[in-house]
Specification:
It contains five helices and two strands, in the order ααββααα. It is mostly helical. The protein has one domain.
Length: 122
């Protein structure tokens, strides 16, 4: 069994369409202001997804005839999975816990929405 990648939480933006939409809507080269705004969107969205958005991990698939039965793990956030992992050092877990204590999910979600509207992504 290989150990999971240690160092950072995996960004789990399923179908994230920020680059896709922004690329088609942009006229001309990206300005430094646009770049800064996109970086802020990515930062806040990464924090929201990794610390507050639960994900169900697929454990197994069982195929019986024409039907497939899927078995999922308990739904947890990537942050909760990192805390439960024996492969992640205690110092990293403590750093993540400190970051978590400073976050407000409602504020992150609102700021991300406002910035996406400013970019013309909604």
């Amino acid at each position: 069994m290989s150990s999971p990648r240690v160092g950072s939480l995996k960004l789990l933006l399923k179908g994230s369409s920020i680059p896709h939409k922004r690329g088609y809507q942009r006229k001309g080269p990206m300005t430094p202001e646009d770049q800064e705004l996109l970086e802020k969107i990515y930062r806040d969205q990464r924090l929201f997804v990794n610390f507050f958005q639960p994900v169900g991990k697929l454990l197994a698939k069982e195929r019986k005839g024409g039907k497939t039965r899927k078995v999922y793990d308990v739904v947890k956030t990537p942050f909760q999975r990192v805390l439960a992992s024996p492969y992640v050092p205690t110092e990293a877990k403590e750093r993540l816990e400190q970051i978590y204590q400073t976050l407000n999910p409602a504020k992150l979600r609102t700021l991300t929405g406002i910035m996406r509207q400013a970019c013309g992504l909604r």
